[in-house]
Every structure is written in C-alpha cells, then in structure tokens.
Structures
1.
Amino acid sequence: AQKVTQAQTEISVVEKEDVTLDCVYETRDTTYYLFWYKQPPSGELVFLIRRNSFDEQNEISGRYSWNFQKSTSSFNFTITASQVVDSAVYFCALSGGTGTASKLTFGTGTRLQVTL
Amino acid sequence: GAGVSQSPRYKVAKRGQDVALRCDPISGHVSLFWYQQALGQGPEFLTYFQNEAQLDKSGLPSDRFFAERPEGSVSTLKIQRTQQEDSAVYLCASSSRVLGGNQPQHFGDGTRLSIL
C-alpha cells in the first residue's frame, strides 16, 4: 500500500520568509512518481512538479525548490521569499510507476498562510 | 476549453435522491480520474478510465456509486440514493497518454456536493 504523510497541518509565515513543506512517503514500488499540487481557495488543484524515483536531483523553479531524498523517503518543498499569493493548501502525492497512468495517493495537505 | 470542466459547480440534494456529476476532460486526454475530497482532507481516488474503458474502480465506496465514459471523452459520476456521508467535493482529472511515465493529472474546479 502507498502512503503519503504531511505532518504539518498549518504553517503561518510573514511575507518574504522562506518556508519548507515536508512530505514523507511509503511505497513498495521500485519505480514511482512524486508530485506537488497547490489548491488555492478557488478549489482547483494546480500541478507544480513531478519527479520520478530514479532522479534525485534537486530542482529549482523560480522561488520554488524541491529536495528529493530516497534515503529518507522524503520530497520536501521550499518556497523562498514567500508572498501572499502563495497562501493555499499544498498537497504532496505519490503514484506507482507501472503503465502509462496511475492513481494518485495524496497526503492530507499543509495549509500555508502568508501575511503581510 | 483549455482545461478540465466540471458541472455543476455546486449541487444540493436531499438524502435519498440520485445525482449526476459531469466532467469534460482536456481535449485529447485519454486518461480520466475521479477523486473525492472530504473537508480538510486530501483527495481520494474513486475510479479511472482509459478512453471508454473503466480500468480501475477500486475506490468507489459502495455500489451506489457508478461512473461511465461511453465515448471516451465526457464522463459522468452518478450517485444513487445519496446519503449525508456522500457530501464532499468531487474532483475530475485528466492526463495525456505518453509512454514512459505517469504524466501529471490536470484537475477541474470540482463539484461541491451537499446532502441535506
């Protein structure tokens, strides 16, 4: 069975602070994919990043960066110089690697509140 | 349209009524997923279609839930004899079929279902 744990339920930061959202996963698959999605108050889940289990290189996209560590089964997400528009619920998700499509297993999400 | 479209956006029904939720995926996307998101939780997988074939329905909570995608495009999720515990946001997602890995799923805004 697959499982994703996001231990941080809610985080509050002041604008321009850096913030890291934690994600720990469990899977028996040797090939798998990890994702982060953002859910603003409007409700739509917005895709941020996909990572496969064979690529442990960290990735940076603007103010966003991701740290994938297989040894600790973690896929953490850092927002640098946070902004009010970053306020949302962030979900980490996992899928198996067989076939061309697979269901996502989500964590319970971390609500990020960025204030002025 | 450019994204996944779901209708209605909100649905209120009395307990015992049947409801039908519609999903129009991104044009050309062969994979379609339904998820259920309870308040304060992450989305949970319900069912998956590849074209018109329902390849996985392991997440449907009971035989009152039924999904179809007869022409491999638009999908309908039907809930019969609704109960209060069916109240949730129902999310639809689609993804393109590309060999070699799980492509990101793109989500609609969801249908918020409230059972009175």
2.
Amino acid sequence: AQSVTQLGSHVSVSEGALVLLRCNYSSSVPPYLFWYVQYPNQGLQLLLKYTTGATLVKGINGFEAEFKKSETSFHLTKPSAHMSDAAEYFCAVSEVDAGKSTFGDGTTLTVKP
Amino acid sequence: GAVVSQHPSRVICKSGTSVKIECRSLDFQATTMFWYRQFPKKSLMLMATSNEGSKATYEQGVEKDKFLINHASLTLSTLTVTSAHPEDSSFYICSARKPGTSGEQFFGPGTRLTVL
C-alpha cells in the first residue's frame, strides 16, 4: 500500500523568502514521486517528478525537490517565493508505472508582499 | 505535449436530472483515465479508474450506478452523474495517463457542477 503525508496544510511565506513544502511517503516498492500545483478553479499541473536516477529533481517555475530514501521524504523547495506561487500544492506517489497515484491532502501556499 | 480537456467547464442543473461530463486527451492516446472529485479546500478523492474498452474500477464507497463512467475510445472518457442531488455539487477533475511518462497524470481543467 502507498500513502502520502503533507506536513502543514497551510504555509505562509514572504515574497523573496525560501519556500519549503514537506512531503513524506510510504511505499512497499521504489516509488515514483510527483509534485503538482493547482490554481483556483483549475486542474492540476505537474511541477516535477522523480522516477529513477538523480535524487535532486528540478521542475518548472524554479521549484526543486530531493528524494531522500532514508527519510522517505520528497520535500519541495524554491529559493525565493514569488506572489504568483500562491496556490495549492499536492504531493503524490505511484508504485508502478501503470498504477494509480495516491495524493496527499495538499498544502496551501500563501505569499505575503 | 499532453493536453486534456473537459467539457463543460461549469454546469448548473436541477435536482433529479443527469449530467454528462466529457474528458478528452487531445494529442495522445490514453488507455487509462481517472476521475476525481474535489471538495472545497480538500484533496482529490479518486472516484474511479477508467480503462478503454472495459468496465471502470470504482473506489470503495463510490456508487457505480450513480456515477456512470464510459471509456469508449482511447481519447474519450465520460462521467455521467445520474439523478443528481445538491450533495453531488462539487468540482470534478479527470486525468489521463500517457504511455512512457512514468506514472505522470495529465489533468483536465475540471468541471464545476452545481445542483439546485
């Protein structure tokens, strides 16, 4: 069975500050890990994904995440927050290529001017 | 690219009527599509997995007779909410798997259903 825990349902940062959104997963096999972003009244858009290889993954809009197997974590970071980063962020895990993904409960990111 | 569309984007209907939502993969063939329901400020709730040419697999607690899913072709899946009631009001999102993308899902823009 697979599961995802996103620590902190709401994160608030000042513009220009570091963004850190936490995600821990549980999987019985090597996982595929994803971060998606959702803007109000829209679908989800992929930010980045980890499948195999390099554990530091870079995505769109300056975001990156590091897969840490020993910590079963896949935290999302961005060095400097922008107002346009305010959105809902979802971490997801998939155990096999053809299987369904399990999503975390989401983290709402607020960026203060 | 990998674009998924949904139609309609917004629908308002009377209680007791049925509503059909379409999900299309525009530039790739999707053997698997997923239907989610999202409540305000909540995560995605997977309703069912739709496989082309076969019956959908519903998640526990989802009424298959109420939420009819048809995946008639490699680019189209439909969700029909039958005899809709106000409690069915929600944001419905579909996604599609594109072969060779290591599990990534491509999401449609969602459909806002309001049942009066």
3.
Amino acid sequence: GENVEQHPSTLSVQEGDSAVIKCTYSDSASNYFPWYKQELGKRPQLIIDIRSNVGEKKDQRIAVTLNKTAKHFSLHITETQPEDSAVYFCAASSGGNSWGKLQFGAGTQVVVTP
Amino acid sequence: SAVISQKPSRDICQRGTSLTIQCQVDSQVTMMFWYRQQPGQSLTLIATANQGSEATYESGFVIDKFPISRPNLTFSTLTVSNMSPEDSSIYLCSVEDAPDTQYFGPGTRLTVL
C-alpha cells in the first residue's frame, strides 16, 4: 500500500520568512496530493491540492510542487504570518480503484514567531 | 464545499460501553469516510462507509469493534464498541465533495476512563 513520509516534524520560522514542508510517497499510481492545515482543536482544513498532471500550483502565499519522477511533493508558504501556525498534513491518493482513500503523512508542527 | 456536522462533539465514557457517533452532510455525497486521530498523531482511515452495503474496513480495523451504518447519501454513524482507554481519540468523518477532494467534519473527541 501507499506510504507517505513527511519532513520536518517541527518547523520554527520568523514572521515574514518562508516555510517549506516536504513529503515523499511510495506508490507510483498515486495521482492526487492534498495538503491540510489543522489548528489546535479544529478539524483538518484543505488548503491546496495538486494532481499528477500538474507540476506546480499556487494560491496566494501558498504553493505546492510535485516531482513525479522522484515521488515527492512540497508545500511552500511565503511571507509567513502568526496565523500560519498550525499542524500541516500532506496526503496521497491513487483515486480510481482506491476509492479516494487518503494516506496521510505524520504532520509538521509549524510555529511562526513574531 | 459541503457542510458537515458530527454528534456528539465530545464525550467521556466508561470502559466496556459503546458510543455511536453521527455524521450529517447537507448534500448528497457518494463517498463518506471515518478516520481516527489519536492524541498528537496523524489521521488514520478506519473505513469507507458505503451506502446500501457493508463498510469497507482498513487493515487493523474490524466491523465488530467499529460497526458503521450508511442508510442514505447524507448520513452515517460509527459505533465504537466495548471501549477501552486505548480508544480515546478524535473520530472524524469526511466526505468526498468532488473527485478525490475530501472535507472533514468537526470531529468527536472521545475519552474512555
């Protein structure tokens, strides 16, 4: 089955700096890669996703890149703000016969200090 | 995206008892899922709730421990049976609102004493 590894487990950044979180996956059939943000005591919130036919996707201060050959994808947050502090989870899905099942990474605790 | 609600939001239960968690969506969805999130951990898929047929369980999860119902396209329940302290977790339902795109309910925080 799919295995998703996520690094780093914790990330401290100064406000205004950039943050990068990296994930690798094992199943070459995976074709959908979402990122979720989970604030303390809240539900995971989908913030951006990318499909295997796209190499990069941006939405304001966040972007995701995908390298299918190397089987890794990354989340980039620019101009970080204190409200970006949260746990971020990457996930991978092969859709189709997997019925949309998501395999999640272990999560990255991001702390943005003013 | 679909609006998802869960009941109860939290509960404290005694070991050996069972708790049924409800998940309600404001629109019809084909796919509904149940996840467990243990304290400080990631999300683990328990099962896919299939409408009109038995749920599909992931490795390590069995129907006797986590029976699931899916009577229609907007509602599902997850029961945590014969609970032990190890079942203390957050249980979340999710729905697939668009191909592959999942949104989560607010979760049910369960503490077993």
